[in-house]
Amino acid sequence: MPVQLDDLDLRLLRELQRSNQLPVSELADRVHSSPATCIRRVKRMREEGVIVADVSIIDPAMFGKSMTVIVEVTIERERPELIDLFKRSVLKNERILHCYYVTGDADFVLLVHVADMEEYDAIITDLFHDNTNIKQFKSLIAIRKIKSSTHYPVTRYTGAESAR
């Protein structure tokens, strides 16, 4: 269930998404509040699960992972235990950055960053070749990144959004 956030909370979230390394005094100036209020509000939003992590975004290319692959996976049988088996194999593979269970033609969509086709081949061999429940997979190689953002557009939640 969404939490109630006021305008100050939203301003704090916008600033923290730009940089969570700001000194509290500067953050307070930017959102027109006191440092103590900012600390208290940010702490509350962490406790409520609004803020889930404070991380540094790393460029995969700096580690030789300049190739992005989106993988659409279709499974043979959608039995819960087989779906869970695939999910577990994905969760234990640290080279898979994102995995979504989806509707449509595919059952799962994965995102991986690799150095080259040889590394990608090793990933698909690990995941798919011994799994008899994989019907097919389709690899989409990204030519160029057009947009990649970790900034969620924070606005006041009214409940009307879910009524549409």
UniProtKB/TrEMBL annotation:
GO terms for molecular function: sequence-specific DNA binding. Keywords: DNA-binding, Transcription, Transcription regulation. It comes from the Bacteria. The keyword Zinc does not apply. The keyword Isomerase does not apply. GO terms for cellular component: cytosol. This is Lrp/AsnC family transcriptional regulator. The lineage of its organism: Bacteria, Pseudomonadati, Pseudomonadota, Alphaproteobacteria, Rhodobacterales.
